[in-house]
Design a protein that fits this description.
- It is built from 6 helices and no strands.
- The chain is an all-alpha fold.
- It has one domain (about 1-95).
């Protein structure tokens, strides 16, 4: 049973992580964002720490990426209902970050 649950919860793991990582890319920054670049880096660093991507000194780590339970449950619910989501997988970071 545990193996089955783990398999189900891993189903969208890579896609969710990929979209979360994409959300942190700041290639197309505006002037206001460039002015506040240091502040943004600190905030993004705290968010990345929260997600388990960096350690307390904001150095990359290979630790557990976090539960990502909310986006997984949402996608699995849509799958169970055999419904097409009203939003794309690209919108998943908004489900994980603002808690």
């Amino acid at each position: 049973m545990t193996d089955t649950i783990n398999t189900v919860f891993q189903r969208y793991q890579q896609e969710i992580l990929q979209e979360l990582h994409q959300a942190f890319l700041t290639q197309n920054t505006s002037l206001a964002e460039r002015v506040n670049h240091d502040t943004l880096l600190k905030i993004y660093g705290q968010m990345q720490y929260h997600l388990g991507w960096v350690d307390q000194q904001l150095r990359p780590t290979d630790g557990h990426p976090g539960k990502l339970l909310r986006p997984k449950l949402l996608l699995l619910s849509y799958e169970l209902l055999q419904q097409i989501p009203l939003f794309s997988l690209c919108d998943q970071p908004c489900l994980q970050l603002p808690r």
